[in-house]
Amino acid sequence: MVDSSDLGKVPGVNVEKLHPNVVAAGWVSFFMDLGSELIYHLLPAFISGSTGLNAGKTMLGLIEGLAEATPAFMKLVAGIWADRISNRKWMIFLGYLISSVIKPFIGLATNAWQVLGLRFGDKVGKGIRSAPRDALIADSVPGSLHGRAFGFQRSMDHLGALGGGLVAWFLLQQLGLSLKTVILISAVPGVLCLLTILWLIREIPNRKIPEPKAESKFAGMEELPRPFWLLFAGLMVCAIANSSDAFLLLRAQEMGVSLATIPLIWSFLHLVKSITCWYGGKLSDRFGPRVVTVGGWLLYSGVYLGFSLMNTPGAAWALFGIYGFFFGFTEGSVKAWIASLVPPERRGTAFGVAGLAEGLMLLPACVLAGWTWDTWGSAVPLTLATVFSACAAVWLWVIVPENTGSSI
To answer: In this predicted model, which residue has the larger pLDDT, 115 or 336?
Structure first.
């Protein structure tokens, strides 16, 4: 059995002030992404490439968009229920259980529609677990540590993805194992993820639970303050710009990165993410989430501009490295920003609404990116993402306030 005291011994990360729930949630994310990235970084080429299912970029966009968009409604419902029930641990466990069972079968699909169905089921699990987990993290630490708490969780998530990419490369390229064997091995981290939840996640005692309003189907949404909805609008524009990273992996191949090297460049991205998410969270606590988030989206705009203009393997590696800084600046700070704008008893609902927006907009974003890529080439969708992300950064900086004092 894992000793909870050992979970804080992460090299280079001081988590002494973080609640055990935050540390445990980080390890849960680590194990889940370790299993996921044994498979996912090869899916873009598998779905749309001539050596795989040869389904085309538009189909890739449809799969990635629907896989994210449809379960987005689950994020909203799960977020509302996370505020109403006394123990959110079992919602978190159920979400991770669904994904852990489904993921090993994704790489065994024989056509694109099977991939779509399995990706949908996986994301249903994510929709169930995300808002309750984020609400639990926010409730486990004071507002002054929200950036570090979410930064740590995202850092561990990306560290798991880094490990998954490296393990996949080693098993496939060095040991010569079959894809089927690697897929079966991906089930092991899922089991470790579930055991970590059972052993180490604990609900916050005496948490305030709001009384639901009988006349409102989605009680709690109407109580979210205006500053949150201003942030929500900005996140909607961000989501339009933020199509699936699968397109960047395909663009890297256009720039000369070989398919065999894709797992390594994907692992490199997650290495940068893992490092910068922790420090990005600390910057959010120090300077405020708005300035860090806006800086991240300006960086995103520059990265997509670079992908549209540059055409060498070295440029692809450099751009993926810079892209990792975008995640470090935004993933923890956005969640900390949301937590600061809403009352504690409505955090689950707020995270669910934000997850709904992200998922719904990802469908048109991915379909648009895939269609424009098939029609005019990669430069058009990459340029559109550059423009939308720059507009989103302006909105977040000019319109949305820093906080309402609710996290204090």
So the answer is: 336
Structural domain includes residue 404: no
For residue 48, what pLDDT band results from cuts at 50, 70 and 90? low
Is 138 inside a domain boundary?
yes
CATH number of the domain that residue 342 is part of: 1.20.1250.20
Least confident of 87-101, 204-218, 221-235, 321-335: 204-218
Q: For residue 160, what are the CA distances in angstroms to 185, 329, 369?
A: 15, 19, 28
Which residue type is seen at 273?
K
H or E element in which residue 283 lies = helix 262-287
In the chain, the amino acid numbered 168 is A
Task: Round to whole Å and give the CA distance between 322 and 120.
Answer: 30
The neighbour count for residue 216, using CB atoms within 10 Å, is 11
Higher-pLDDT residue of 135, 70: 135
- Asked whether the predicted pLDDT for residue 2 surpasses 50, the reply is no
The whole-angstrom separation of Cα 99 and Cα 110 is 20
pLDDT range class, residue 14, cuts 50, 70, 90: very low
Q: How far apart are CA 310 and CA 327, in angstroms?
A: 21
For the beta carbon of residue 279, count every other beta carbon within 10 angstroms: 18
**pLDDT reported for residue 179:** 67
Alpha-carbon span 256 to 250, nearest angstrom: 10
Angstrom distance (rounded) from CA 131 to CA 128: 7
- Judged by average pLDDT, the poorest of 5-14, 37-46, 94-103, 134-143 is 5-14
Q: Range of 168's domain?
A: 20-203+220-398
Number of domains in the chain: 1
Q: What are phi and psi of 242, to 5 degrees?
A: -100, 70
- State both tokens at 143: 């507002």
Burial per residue of 47-78, b for 16 or more beta-carbon CB atoms within 10 angstroms, e otherwise: bbbeeebebbbbbbbbbbbbbbbbbbbbbbeb
Q: DSSP H helical segments within 170-261, as ranges?
A: 179-185, 187-200, 226-241, 246-254
The answer to whether residue 11 sits within a structural domain is no
Domain contains 408: no
pLDDT value at position 289? 93
244 pLDDT above the threshold of 80: no
Contact (Cβ atoms closer than 8 angstroms) between residue 361 and residue 239: yes
Neighbouring CB atoms inside 10 A of 256's CB total 13
pLDDT above 90 (res 357)? no
pLDDT of residue 194: 96
Query: Can you read off the two tokens belonging to residue 252?
Result: 């890297």
